[in-house]
Specification:
about 350 residues; 11 helices; 18 strands; seven-stranded mixed beta sheet; alpha/beta; six-stranded parallel beta sheet
Length: about 350
């Protein structure tokens, strides 16, 4: 098997070859045909998250090097363990990567993505920047029907993350207004999915004019530059007093602050992005505005099934996909880190 791996945190990815794994028990062996590149890949590659004020969260522990990134995976089944009956060799499947221990109360609740002993593909164990992948159980494989594989793989992270976050604000935004902070890969995925979840008026905010334009093309009523000193007053006037919810797909100090500031009374801020920094707000503003702040981490397996049904039924708007060969994995990470990517890059084997 051939994999593109980092041998030290932050070092360039290198092409390594080795023996392909063998599927046993409940395991499924797959040939990877496409794998999306996600901004969280950068944090794992660098080995930390920025906590603001010069502090970092070190995430280097428990991961064997060299390591293979990639969690937006689609592929073809090439072998199955002796216990597997739900899929067969030749089946084309998209892979749910947010796998837990399967034994704790969190996993039993259906929120496996929040497990404290995770085995997430491309996060904790080897992922899809490779031509071969082991999946621990067939229940994590979903049929993607006639969807293009390059599109199907994006639903396992950017799509799922957006769908779960939209579900968290639906009760506030139906009949109201929603602001999408950040028109990068996940923000645009939210734009593609939003009309299947809520009937809200949707606005988009981004400091990059190209991404603001992408947000407009994706259906936003208006796009604003939150770094413009006049943006707040203008936006509050445009919306008649603010939005009912903001989903922050950036997760920076400035984006979270702006997203909270433009909430109407009773509004909700959902923070999804992992750019980093800290968030502070005067405590009286929480009761005065009756506002809430919630974090959202990808989504559960049931939400993944729901999203795939919407996608296969043709109910989601198109998403901009930029295909690149798998050997471009390292260059793609660098481009993404530099903010040069609009849409979603998908690596192809």
């Amino acid at each position: 098997m051939k994999s593109y791996q980092f041998e030290e945190y932050g070092a360039p990815l290198v092409e390594n070859t080795g023996d392909a794994p063998v599927a046993t028990g409940d395991q499924v062996l797959m040939d990877v045909t496409a794998c999306g590149v996600c901004h969280s890949d950068i944090h794992i590659w660098e080995g930390h998250f920025d906590l603001g004020n010069g502090k970092q969260l070190n995430i280097k522990g428990g991961r064997e090097l060299p390591f293979t990134l990639g969690h937006e995976i689609v592929g073809t089944v090439t072998a199955v363990g002796e216990n597997v009956t739900d899929v067969k060799v030749g089946d084309k499947r998209v892979v749910y990567p947010w796998i837990g221990c399967g034994e704790c109360a969190i996993c039993a609740s259906g929120e496996e993505q929040l497990c404290n002993r995770p085995c997430q593909l491309g996060i904790d164990v080897a992922g899809g920047y490779s031509d071969t992948l082991i999946v621990p159980h067939a229940r994590y494989l979903l049929d993607y029907g006639s969807l293009a594989k390059e599109l199907a793989c994006t639903y396992t992270c950017s799509g799922l993350t957006a769908y779960s976050a939209l579900n968290k604000v639906k009760s506030r935004t139906d009949g109201g207004k929603l602001l999408i902070m950040g028109a990068g890969g996940v923000g645009l995925a939210a734009m593609a999915i939003a009309k299947s979840v809520t009937d809200a008026e949707i606005y988009v905010a981004d400091i990059d004019p190209a991404k603001r334009e992408a947000g407009l093309q994706a259906g936003a009523i208006a796009a604003i530059d939150p770094s413009d000193s006049a943006a707040f007053k203008s936006f509050m006037g445009t919306t008649g007093g603010g939005v009912n919810a903001t989903i922050d797909f950036v997760g920076a100090e400035s984006s979270a602050a702006f997203g909270a500031k433009v909430l109407a009374k009773g509004g909700k801020l959902v923070i999804v992005g992992l750019f980093g920094g800290s968030f502070s707000m005067p405590l009286p503003m929480f009761p005065i505005k009756a506002m809430s702040v919630e974090g959202s981490y990808v989504g559960n397996l049931q939400e993944m099934r729901e999203l795939m049904e919407l996608a296969k039924a043709g109910k989601l708007n198109e998403l901009t996909i930029v295909p690149r060969p798998m050997k471009e994995a390292y260059n793609t990470l660098e481009d993404l880190r530099a903010g040069k990517v609009v849409g979603r890059v998908v690596l192809q084997s």
